[in-house]
Target: DUF1062 domain-containing protein
Amino acid sequence: MSQQHIWEVKTRNTPLLKKKCNHCDGERFYCSDKFRLNAQKKNIDIWLIYRCVKCKSRYNMTLFSRIRTESITKEIFNKFSENNVDLAWKYAFSYEIRKKNNVEADLDSVEYDILYSDILEDMAKPDNEELMFIIKCPLEFGLKISSVVRTCLGLSSGKLDQLIEMNAISVQEKSLQKKHKIKDGDIVYIDKEKLLSICSAKIV
Model:
């Protein structure tokens, strides 16, 4: 049997763009959470506006170019027009959009919090052979699963290494590797007995 828990990653900001400014010596641009729209007859261009961290000069990142206006639903069009923050963040975190614009993100600039619950009660239950954790991270930014495991279980790097060597942690039915990065909905299983064998009685 396994007890299900949720690990939810909450991002505090969008990633900066690694881009040299044409107006100063700045090398990073931040997302303004605003869009620029330009309609010509039945076609429309849509950009996400970025600003230089140093001088505030503008860079427009292309989202759509010369697309038919009817190809966008009224609801989505209104969100673009109203500078919907959730929609802006969706595109700011999009690898596909950055690749399309030939720009790179500074993913290390993303700050985040992890919401998780205490597992002491489940650790004490004799009928639980393994612990199950579902990771919620709708905005992906290269965060490693091992970092989340360490944080939520209060493990040192050495103890995490021991668990990995013992094949005590699996993700999507495959043994965890330190290089594995989070995808929204990932399911992590941890062998409870093996976790207990390397940890003290109290797990934070």
